[in-house]
Amino acid sequence: xxxxxxxAVPFYAALGxxxxxxxxxxxxxxxxxxxxxxxxxxxRALASPDIRAAxxxxxxxxxxxxxxxxWVGVPLGYLLARTRFPGKAAVDLLVDVPIALPPLxxxxxxxxxxxTPPGLAVQRHLTVTYAVPAVVLAQFVVAAAFAARTMxxxxxxxxxxxxDVAMTLGCSRGxxxxxxxxxxxxxxxxxxxxxxxxxxxxxxxxxxxxxxATRGRTEVLATTVYLELSVGNxxxxxxVSVLMIGVAVAxxxxxxALGLRGAG
Length: 264
Fold this sequence. Notes:
mainly alpha; MetI-like fold; 13 helices; globular; MetI-like; membrane
């Protein structure tokens, strides 16, 4: 037994080295950001009305896109995990398209979509392009793909037995889903929402192309970093970057804490 453990040491050391290199890179990036900025820099950045407006729009748009992503991701993930239907392979492929496409292509595709007759018909009633709805939609398109993929894995890991038992006791398929399956999947729903929110926070390319980066109108934190860098204001760009890191970490920690509490 001792010999077996000793022989495993080089194996685990190699795994730890490979994984540690990546973790070390992430830590080094965060430390570098923190080393080149300070609370005073963040305070000066937040003193700007434009950046404060970008913060509020970021929080609102990310929350809206995350809710919409979960709203779509739950049923889509359930269908892909539990059912068979014609064209399932094509749907499965299409769900991954926003993830695989270059971000700028996603934004350009949305922009072209709203220049078609159906898109122009929508814009006669609601201005989408280069407005706040474009920010939410650009974030949602990519975030929903991650949410759907997360929910599919979640439902695949849950046994369908409890849902089948509920149906034998008189529940319809829909009632069994709402009362049995969905509560069992609550940790997955929380994970999908967190991932969608975090992905929306960092969305840049689609937002820039489809919504623009107009100060006080469609500017979010990701585009704020770009705008500040474009005018050579590295201090403000780093301050906003650190702010985004703090918000992302806070959301992840809070959501995981609530998830653990809900499971207890």
